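TonB-dependent receptor (Dyella tabacisoli), 976 aa
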Amino acid sequence: MARLSAAVALGMALLYGGTAHAQQNTGTTSQDAPSQDAVAPATAAAKKAGAKTKDDKQAVALSAVTVTGVRASLQSAQQLKQNADQIVDSVTAVDIGALPDRSVTETLQRISGVTIDHFMARNDPDHFSAEGSGVMIRGMTQVRGELNGRDVFSANSGRGLSFEDVPAELMAGVDVYKNPAADIIEGGVGGTVNLRTRLPFDAPGRVIGFTGGINEGDFAKKNKPSASFLYSNVWKTENHGEFGALFDVAYSELATRSDGIQVEPYIKRTDAAVLAGSNLSQAYVPGGADWRTLDFQRRRIGLAGALQWRPNKNLELTTQVLRSDYRMNWDEHGAIFGDSSSSIVPADGTTFKYSNDGVFQSGSLASNSSRGSLAGNGVRFGTDHRNAAQRTITTDWSNSLKYNLSDQMVLYADAQLVKSTSKSLDFTVFDATYLPGVSLDVSGARPTVTVSPASYTSNPANYFWNAAMDHHEQNRGIERALKLDLEYNFEDNKWLRYARFGVRATSRSELNKSNGYNWGVVTDNWATIDSPNGLANLSSYLPNLSSLYSFSNFFRGNAKIPAPLYFPGGALAGNYLYAYTQLHSIGVPWGWKPRPDFRPQDINNQSEKTKAAYGALYFGNDEALGVPFDGNIGVRLVRTDVDAAGYGQYPDLTSAGVPDSLKAIYNGSYFPLGSRSHYQNALPSLNLRFKLTPELQWRLAVSKAMARPDFTQMQPYLAMGATLNPDKTEVTKWTGTAGNPNLKPMRATQYDTALEWYFAPTGQLYTTLFYKDVSDYIASQTHSETYNGQVFGVTRPYNMGSGKIRGAEIGYSQFYDFLPSWLRGFGMQANFTYVDSKGGVNTATDPYSNATVTGVTLPLEGLSKRSYNFTGMYERGPWSMRLAWTWRSRYLLTASDVATHLPTWSDDFGQLDGSVFYRINSNVQVGLQTNNLTNTTTKVLMGPASYSDGTVDRHLYTRGWFVNDRRYEFVLRATF
């Protein structure tokens, strides 16, 4: 610890004493940087086509010059972008374990047009994610993940890869395709992210590398290790060609803490008690406030292996395996408002204070909701202890063959197996209390909550055991894929370079099980036991299984909340089977009971087969148009077959007073539902590049893309319901909710144009304009459907609506080598993205009834109009440093979040990260990586709300404020 503290102190001094940089690598030469072959398959045509340009000569001249660290990685990424057949951006790690950030997700956000979330799920913004999640490209969430150019996914009921599951230490680079060619696998309307791992033949001989580190968050205050090791070698034999073998393992742990304080939805109020003293005809009043601390831990293990054999110059065989094992656990203590928002009134003898437009600012809260046998008018709060654990394992095994049939023809064959499993348990134990003298003030930078008397929260007799809730998920996805490609090189042709043709077939099965959130009461005002007040208070019942939680250093001391509070102990929250035996012994006998099994409606079993064929022609001419140009034109034809099996469930009217004829049919029974469907898509593409000068090129790209619906949206389950009249003798409304296995994919026609200037080996300036015409957005609607002669109003997702997305990207990167002496080590990277959209389908919610209503138009989820990155770099001698600022503007997280059912937004967000590394010698470097240096507060907004009477409250109220760790990691890297 003493050595670690000294290293951290030294690193911090260096960090704040200079400028910093985005990527760290050990010494290499420009020859070691990956070529375009790392992005697209190597082609015979690429080796033969075209005369040498000034760029080629410049690259040859540089081959004898040692290019190290940051410059090597930037030069590699720049070469990939400049020479690619389509519009692509890359981040490379020439050295082992040297991506600029400690997660793939955080690395991706440095690329222009790419943004990420900082929440565990977009529809659950109550739970913050320090590492980031949810990658979006140009404001679209339909992003497809690849591993080494092949399909890959996580078993999370969706289609994409959870990039946070994959160890960044295993990556050689990350590529983002924004307007692809026909030979790229379909499925990403927003774009495609390709993760590249290393191969033995990437280096001519033996390579050994390792990294080690210790990270700590200043909030969590826990040291966690990370390490990786790589061994790669190539052996040349006299009679059997070349053999290569690679083994790579990465291990990392992380512990973070986040604190949040939140305000409940603002409700339109017209009652006299609330408006007293205000001279208002209506006002908007929140229900109360919540505050929570979440402790998060994750462990990630990655294994990558590869074998290559080149028996002769015409044949190359490769087998690759990657396995990622991701485990996470989070433990949350939350004080959650538990009353009815519309029951909040001013405390006796007080009035609420409002802004000029009638929005609540401060006041003393009371509640007129029922308290059963309890006296007083305190406001109800729950003290919830929640523990969630998840393990996701993803395995990818692929085998490929490259065979030169002749000097002009190359055959590629590929077989792949992907398997991903995910299992999770989410369990919460609830206490409840009625807090007296609650004062709420939202007029400042963040809410202030007090209780009077303050000592009330420290008495366990003032709390009672209230409820418990368990949730289980078990997901499994398997895909098998076969691919065959043929490439023909047109020798000595002035116009045609080469052609590619290919076919691909996949078979994917998804079995996703999720049993919902099984909430059940222990004791409550309406579920009483034999005790003086009908409740099981904490002082008399299971007194050793609850404890005070102090919310130490909450919000770094910048928020005032009632504390400490009594919470269920870890022995209960961490073991739901033990919790049942204890809580059942004190609660109502018909109360909460664990439900680890899965009912028919909890099971989503689907299979999908795809067949694709493509053809692409690559062409170019150096003289015909006055400037050299090249490009490709092609089309990809795709057929998708979907097979889904599920159930419908009739409503249960057996205990109602309806006629026996209805009871006989509607008794809660299940009936089978199945669906088979297919659809075809033709996806043409055109990419052109004009080399205006050897350094300046202009690109044009047009393509069509598709994104298939998530498996959750296609679940073949129909839950049917019946609304009864007050005396339960007649059905007044027949309803249902369902998935839609007949959904078609979202489609887009995409246009891009880019002007790119490569004025130095590590200097570029580019601008890109893009436009997407998107159709078949997926949204829910209610239509009449008939079952057994009865008409039901069934709500399910449909393809509907269209939209247009347009925008621009600007990027710049340079080291200032023209400066004198030590100043030439400075450099800068910067990019800016603007995205705008029109159309799409979104709705809003009445906060009284949680019913969906019209009257509000919302933008697309995940779309920030503006985002940018700015990185200051310094690399000279043994020093390599960076400071990286990332910012994105407000965007819609979800049209209806799971807690408030309101549209919820993430406000403008910026974060500063940094690193400083010192190279001890040509093989070893040490350094410090940091995150969230500015201690950024993440703000969540809610609204607008539209009411069933036609009123629209267009305010965007602040729903929540979150802070999390500043993170520091001491890192050692070595390559031999």
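DSSP finds nine helices and 53 strands in the chain. The domain at 21-366+394-975 is CATH 2.40.170.20 (Maltoporin; Chain A). ok done for today
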